[in-house]
Write a structure and sequence with these properties.
The structure is a single chain. Helix content is about 25%, strand content about 30%. Helix 2 links the parallel strand 2 and strand 3. About 30% of the residues are buried. The protein is α/β, with parallel strands linked by helices. Helix 1 packs across helix 2. It has one domain: 60s Ribosomal Protein L30, Chain: A (2-Layer Sandwich), CATH 3.30.1330.40.
Length: about 130
Amino acid sequence: MKSIRAFRGAIQLNVDASEEMRKCVAQLLKEMFDSNSIENEDLISMLFTATPDLTCEFPAVGARVFGITDVPLICASEIDVKGALPRTVRVLLHAESSLTRAEITHVYLNGAEILRPDLGNSAKNQGSK
């Protein structure tokens, strides 16, 4: 039986450029979909945040380019915390899933792994979920 689940993800961009934003958002979503067996029809909504140093484009554009065209998406600016990881896009994805909360793989890529080492894909792969 499917339930509504929340999936977290984040990725650090190398540069503040539209092409990089689109590439990284697509990479993050592909990994989240693959790791959690998410199909487009399972999606409910996505909330993206971007650190204040990312001004090239909305992360949702990357999701649209990835093929997500009929799902509500919204973007917001991440709180500008001193010392925070720069050039980072975060996503909170809501979807219907048969996975339990303990089975979910939250995905952190390209340096964003340090944000939640206890929660991300590297922790699960090491069996320390």
